[in-house]
């Protein structure tokens, strides 16, 4: 294996654009050599060291979580949420990290609501503002039209879509075209799309409020067998009690966080 990599190869491996790689190299974060023609070359072990460091999940800073809740709990418009998301993207250098942070914001909102520190309307207004800001961001991430296609749906009976919206940012950053199915999607519809050959991957999300285990198991069985039959990957996300055995089957992936999603998508498609 060639010991040295080009900027484009490093970018592909790390799932970022070549500009980020050049910026890290020029700021000394990622050591590189120069060819006589002044092209950057990266040693494979250095890149691997950098990749591992990059993928360390850092505990989100409580001050940042607080600042986010203050923003979406104020009467701000989707433009402000959009620009705050873009600001965090440039600060954190990858959408999966922004998604981890915003996921922690959602969990904190849930805690405050449970503790009676936030009213129902207040919680709904905040999550709706976030959803609209996220939708703007999603549209601004360009993906190649001939890239692979992922169908994103909420499990039938689940109304939570924010986790799936955060996942969509990661999919798009990895070059996937997303078919957004949205909340509570009937299983038969999902199976129909798989049989029709409309997607290379299906991601199903279900939150911890999903209590009907047999319904969840039936959905996994139906969607799962259609995926096996048509060579489609299946990702199960969200904190619902997904069946244990699911991730043992080929093409099945139980994904617990956005870093795992980012890595998995990189291994499935460059
Ligand atoms: C906003 C919100 C709502 C909104 C959703 C709006 C929307 N458009 O999404 C509304 C008002 C609709 C709602 C409704 C309900 N909610 Co609610 N909701 C929340 C809240 C505050 C926000 C976050 C959210 O979307 N989480 C939902 C999921 C997606 O998060 P998660 O499963 O933890 O997943 C995380 C990751 O795994 C990842 N992820 C999720 N999906 C996917 C998919 C992929 C592919 C990947 C890679 C990752 C990924 O993202 C998440 C963030 O990190 C959470 C608080 C919290 N702690 O999450 C409560 C929460 C999930 N809700 C809860 C409850 C109880 C309900 C209701 C039953 C309330 C009611 N009595 O009506 C209903 C259920 C409706 C239904 N049939 O599904 C509880 C569940 C508690 C439990 N353990 O049972 C929570 C935890 C709040 C709490 N602390 O009590 N809710």
Structural features, described:
With 270 residues, the protein is α/β, with parallel strands linked by helices. It has three domains: 51 residues, Orthogonal Bundle (Multidrug-efflux Transporter Regulator, Chain: A, Domain 2), CATH 1.10.1660; 79 residues; 120 residues, 3-Layer(aba) Sandwich (Rossmann fold), CATH 3.40.50. It contains eleven helices and eight strands. Strands 5-4-6-7-8 form a five-stranded parallel beta sheet, sandwiched between helices. Strands 1-3-2 form a three-stranded antiparallel beta sheet. It starts with a strand and ends with a helix.
Order of helices and strands: EHHEEHHHHHEHEHEHEEH
The rough form would be described as globular
Mean pLDDT: 90
Largest sheet: 5 strands, parallel
CATH arch. level architecture of the largest domain:
3-Layer(aba) Sandwich
Give me the Rg, rounded: 20 Å
- The N- and C-terminal alpha carbons lie at a distance of 18 Å
Q: How many DSSP E strands?
A: 8
- Domain count: 3
Bound small molecules, deduplicated: cobalamin
Oligomer: single chain
**CATH topology grouping of the largest domain:** Rossmann fold
Helix content: 40-55%
Number of helices: 11
